[in-house]
Amino acid sequence: MTATPPTSPPPxxxxxxxxxxxxxxxxxxxxxxxxxxxxxxxxxxxxxxxxLISFLGSELKPNGMPHHPEMKFPHxxxxxxxxxxxxxxxxxxxxxxxxxxxxxxxxAAGLLFSQLLWENPFADWDVGDRYCxxxxxxxxxxxxxxxxxxDLIAAHEQARILGTGTLV
Length: 168
Known about the structure:
The protein is mainly alpha-helical. It has one domain. Helix content is about 50%, strand content about 5%. The protein is built from 5 helices and 4 strands; from the N terminus they run ααββββααα. The strands form 2 sheets. A two-stranded antiparallel sheet has the order 1-2. The protein has a two-stranded antiparallel sheet with strand order 3-4. Strand 3 (about 75) and strand 4 form a beta hairpin. Helix 1 runs antiparallel to helix 2 (about 35-55), helix 2 (about 35-55) runs parallel beside helix 3 (about 90-105) and helix 3 runs antiparallel to helix 4 (about 110-115). It is globular. The relative contact order is 0.17. The mean pLDDT is about 85.
């Protein structure tokens, strides 16, 4: 008889987004701008993945990676010829959310989330910035990233409470 290795629970992107956001706010209060900005980006990334899975047709693969079964995106670490539906990381993840939401503009959820997507507030964000010395990171950067993460979390929560992916 062989023992089955324990499996990890599936990711809970909605809860993780709130956790990272609260941690970012605490880091901001402590004036740890590098950590606050890093956590704001992680909060937004988790919120986007929660939106994609909860309302826009994305799914979790058995390995826990989120993907959209009908879309193809250039894989960020491979050559462009290797397109797949896997959701990656910010800032490219924002473009994936935009593509999926606009594709579903005929649905209430697509319209709701399309309203958030006029401009990518994370276009200048990089997960590797957690290694920076902080001299290029301004309070405006951190505040913009925190606000965008909050807006995504709030939109997901409102759509979840209403149950339809709409604001009304």
